[in-house]
Design brief:
The chain has one domain. The protein is 70% helix and 0% strand. It has 5 helices and no strands. It is elongated, with a radius of gyration of 21 Å.
Length: 148
């Protein structure tokens, strides 16, 4: 069973940020393992730390980084289908990732993380606003009891 994609353009736009994060982090991972000193600021600090920490057994770093990147792909899938929990989990992990950059005082990625977090909040806000505006389900009338 496939879940329908959000019809709300704000939610859809916000949810797609998770795919941008995953995609550019994958590019950063490729750049790291190819020996390049270039990377994208939108990428994940967690994958950079994992790749650097496990650079000797490269396969371990690659597997852990792939799991982290895959997490954002899955979160993006569910966020695009109006799942508020996906936005919350993705946002929490992305905030932790921003702290990785803040810990080493790399402020450009921190600023970009803040920009993305702003857009993620827009999606959360749109979803919460929709659920608050949704009418309460009507209670079904009970048939009268016999003999009443």
């Amino acid at each position: 069973m496939t879940l329908p994609v959000s019809s709300d353009p704000t939610v859809a736009s916000s949810a797609r940020w998770f795919w941008w994060i995953a995609g550019l982090s994958l590019v950063n991972l490729f750049l790291f393992y190819s020996g390049s000193n270039t990377n994208f600021v939108i990428g994940l600090g967690m994958t950079a730390v994992v790749s650097a920490a496990f650079s000797d057994p490269k396969v371990v770093g690659l597997i852990l980084s792939a799991l982290i990147i895959g997490h954002y792909g899955v979160i993006g899938y569910f966020a695009l289908r109006d799942k508020l929990w996906a936005f919350y989990i993705g946002l929490a992990v992305y905030i932790l990732d921003a702290l990785v950059y803040a810990a080493i005082a790399d402020w450009m990625p921190v600023a970009f993380h803040a920009y993305v977090i702003f857009h993620l909040f827009k999606g959360i806000s749109a979803l919460r606003g929709r659920s608050a505006a949704a009418p309460a389900p009507m209670e079904q009338a009970q048939p009268p009891e016999a003999g009443a």
